[in-house]
Specification:
This protein is of the alpha+beta class. It has four helices and 22 strands. It has four domains: 45 residues; 86 residues, conserved putative lor/sdh protein from methanococcus maripaludis s2 fold; 86 residues, Beta Barrel (Elongation Factor Tu (Ef-tu), domain 3), CATH 2.40.30.170; 122 residues. The radius of gyration is 53 Å and the shape is rod-shaped.
Length: 384
């Protein structure tokens, strides 16, 4: 039925118009009805034309997203903890006074090196000098008495041979010579003893090393056993303290230790924690060291607790975490590709990952959890 010529509903519509208004001619729609229906028909026709047009534009691709990227590294990586250590000689000895007296000389300054047998301290011992003088005098007197008694024996033997001296007198002369000889030997032993004691007034370096500290001053009186000098080897070691709880996480004998200008390894771990912080003494043997490393100095050290010789490492902020675990985003063909990884040692902002990534690969760093895997990338390289 023609929507413009009317039906029973149309006739009803027209019959209900306000009585004050003039009814339109029978069979013709009103002006307002015709305009609205014409617009609807035109709109439907336009939609049909657009939908059937072969030149309609396709949906636009996602806009490129800007990301920061970095190249992966290949090679060794070592994770370590940092401590403060004190430089010390590998071995030390305390040089003690062996005779009573007064310190006359300390010829090697503190911190200076010394050769083996070089004088470290000299002690003045007047009483010992007097003993030496007396022993020498006793020795000379004993020699003179022996010479006299033995010369007299030679004479008495001649007299006895001539029959003018009895055998008893000759026996007495021989006894006097023998006794004088024993006295000479005793005097010599006393001189040796006093001479050995006098040699103890000079304390020499037992090996090539360094004077670490003077315990006494020149002019100070000392007794046997008084410490004079602290002397150490030229070989160095580092002494540090580690919290007891960190021993189980990589601190072990043989662990590598690095510091400015040198390296070493853990040579000794104390068996007992000390102090309220439960700190354990750890000694490090120094294998290489800068010549400027001084005994007593405090140096920062890095104790290696985990190390890989050849591995792939990425920046720490290139690693993301989701419900499936850890991952990195590789840049391939202008798109981000998710790769699951397992983390290893960390060093200076880089972390080892397994399985390894191809050499020269590029990974996205920073805010990796916001990257759209389906959008093209606009990569901006950051400093490694």
């Amino acid at each position: 039925m023609n929507v413009l010529t009317g039906t029973a509903e149309a006739r009803t519509y027209f019959s209900t118009r306000s009585p004050g208004r003039r009814s339109p001619s029978r069979g013709l729609p009103s002006r307002g009805t015709l305009t609205g229906r014409t617009a609807l028909v035109a709109l439907l026709a336009l939609v049909a034309l657009v939908g059937c047009s072969p030149d309609a534009p396709a949906p636009a691709d996602p806009l490129p997203q800007a990301v920061r990227v970095s190249t992966v590294r290949q090679g060794p990586i070592a994770e370590g903890r940092r401590y403060l250590a004190t430089v010390a000689p590998a071995d030390t000895v305390r040089v003690l006074a062996q005779v009573p007296g007064t310190v006359l000389e300390l010829p090697i300054a503190q911190g200076s090196s010394a050769k083996r047998q070089q004088v470290l301290a000299r002690i003045g011992a007047p009483e010992l000098a007097a003993r030496v003088a007396r022993a020498r005098a006793e020795g000379l007197r004993a020699q003179q008495q022996r010479d006299f008694a033995c010369d007299h024996l030679d004479t008495d033997r001649g007299l006895a041979a001539a029959g003018v001296m009895t055998s008893e007198q000759l026996d007495t002369s021989e006894s006097n010579c023998a006794t004088a000889q024993l006295a000479v030997e005793a005097a010599r032993a006393a001189q040796d003893d006093v001479g050995a004691a006098s040699g103890k007034t000079v304390e020499a370096a037992p090996f090539e090393g360094r004077v670490l500290e003077h315990f006494v001053d020149v002019g100070q009186a000392v007794m046997p056993g008084t410490p004079l000098v602290l002397y150490g080897t030229t070989e160095l070691q580092l002494a540090l303290r580690v919290p007891q709880g960190e021993l189980a996480s990589g601190v072990r004998l043989g662990a590598a230790v690095t510091f400015a200008g040198g390296r070493g390894e853990v040579s000794e771990i104390g068996g007992q924690a000390k102090g309220p912080g439960a700190l354990v003494d750890v000694l490090v043997s120094v294998h290489e060291a800068d010549a400027a490393l001084m005994v007593g100095a405090t140096v920062p050290v890095r104790l290696v607790v985990a190390e890989l010789r050849d591995t792939t490492s990425v920046p720490v902020d290139a690693v993301g975490t989701d419900a499936d675990g850890r991952y990195v985003l590789l840049v391939q063909d202008g798109r981000a590709v998710r790769r699951p990884v397992t983390l290893g040692p960390t060093e200076s902002g880089w972390v080892a990952v397994e399985p390894g990534l191809p050499a020269g690969s590029t990974v996205i760093v920073r805010a990796v959890d916001t990257v759209n895997l389906h959008a093209p990338l606009l990569a901006v390289r950051v400093e490694s």
